[in-house]
Amino acid sequence: MEDCIFCKIANHVIESNYVYEDDLVAAFRDMNPQAPTHVLVVPKKHYANIVDDVPAETLAAMAHAVDEVAKAEGVRDSGFRVIANTGDDAGQTVHHLHWHVLGGTSLGEGLV
Ligand code: 5GP
Ligand code: ZN
């Protein structure tokens, strides 16, 4: 989608700090990290959020990317959190589906 920052980053129109990539998804570091590991997993195709009729194949690719990111960041065994802010009440600011992968420290028991 034109003028979507995550479409541009996922498809290398704008370069970023990538951690993992395959045909369907890209994973890159959040520009405002909230934890030592804070990586965004996004599909290369534009979906507004998790309830935008996302194909099962894309969701599976995103789950696989989470695993690859966790391995690459060394948080697969220690644990990490995956968050999908969806819509206004969740404070979604970028309206291109993305999963936050957070870890590298004890994340506490807030919210979830
Ligand atoms: P949301 O609140 O929509 O779930 O979070 C969007 C996230 O995207 C925020 O954590 C923000 O820091 C990150 N972000 C927004 N624009 C950019 C960008 O241009 N590059 C990167 N790497 N992260 C971004
Ligand atoms: Zn997009």
What is the topological layout?
Layout: H1 5-10, E1 18-21, E2 25-29, E3 37-43, H2 56-73, E4 80-83, E5 99-103
Antiparallel strand pairs: 1-2, 2-3, 3-5, 4-5
The structure holds guanosine-5'-monophosphate and zinc ion.
Zinc ion binds next to helix 1.
Largest sheet: 5 strands, antiparallel
> So what's the overall shape?
globular
Report helical residue fraction.
10-25%
The fraction of residues in strands falls at 15-25%
Q: What oligomeric state is this?
A: single chain
Helix and strand composition category: alpha+beta
Can you give a write-up of this model?
The structure is a single chain. With 112 residues, this protein is of the alpha+beta class. The protein has one domain: 2-Layer Sandwich (HIT family, subunit A). The protein contains 2 helices and 5 strands, in the order αβββαββ. It has helices at residues 5-10, 56-73; strands spanning 18-21, 25-29, 37-43, 80-83, 99-103. Strands 1-2-3-5-4 form a 5-stranded antiparallel beta sheet. A hairpin with a 7-residue loop joins strand 2 and strand 3 (37-43). The longest helix has 18 residues, at 56-73. It is globular. The model has no long low-confidence stretch (mean pLDDT 97). Bound molecules: guanosine-5'-monophosphate and zinc ion. Guanosine-5'-monophosphate is lined by residues 5, 16, 28-32, 40, 85, 91-94.
